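Mods, move this if it's the wrong board.
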Amino acid sequence: MITASLWWHPGQGQGLEKLFRYARRMRNGGIRPNAAMSWAREGPATALLDAGKGLGYVAARRAMDRAIEIAKQSGIAMVAVRHSNHFGIAGYHAKRAADAGLIGIAMTNAGAEMAPWGATRPILGTNPWGIAVPRGGHHPIILDMALTQSGKGMMRWLDRAGLPMPDTWALTADGARTTDPGAAMDGPLLPIGDYKGYGLSLITDALTGVLTGSLFGAQVFQDDENYDVAHTMIAIRIEAFIARRRFDERLEALIADVLTAPPIDPDGPVQLPGQAEQERARWRLEHGIPVDGTTVAGLRDLARELGVPFALEPVA
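Not the wrong board. Structure tokens:
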């Protein structure tokens, strides 16, 4: 959650704001803090972790660490997780592989918020992907994206601020385009790339929920006591395909081509995936993470309820 708070805009809802729903799910049994996770299947380059309704952060991290371990021997590994919960930001898990010198891919299914292309009823999730590529001497390239144009968290943020949203983000419940985030709150989110994003979300559900024996489609996140989310982690050892020095040289040549492309706006140079988030993280590590007043008040109430110290106070 701290990583998410360092990387993302608060409206994306992946930081400290998650504590409230996690606390609720722990109370009602949707998340088991001390779940006995176990390896259900293991093969030469694969494994399946049963998370036992435990914390998705923990399950996904264990899965990626196992994928890294296997890939260092086999060249490539795919480790899936069943019976899990929300796993945070996909890029965090992919980056674990990149930090170990491997290419990492992380994906998960999620609650139904996207309608199939041409429909109005949500069936599929935002189903995010994280892909991280190590870059010698530099921060890894990190692609972290949901498969929708935006999320309900950002829409709520804009609604509270009285601001419009692009009409490409979501539909109203009856299928109309709108720039009013409040009017679209009960409608489906729109996919990235129109029908292409819908296809990617469908395939992601097949590679997570369907493949592992967890819930999929409109079933995910519907029962507050049993979310049954699935994740898939892939780790790739670069040296299984090309000498590492040669890979680094070729990657830097590609990056140079990308970054020297003439920008449309001279004041907005071309950036790499994840570059803006890492610059934001550097600034926040030095100056602090901004937390809105509503979240501070909620954290104070939660701390009081749990009987733990709370020292965070609003800055005048």
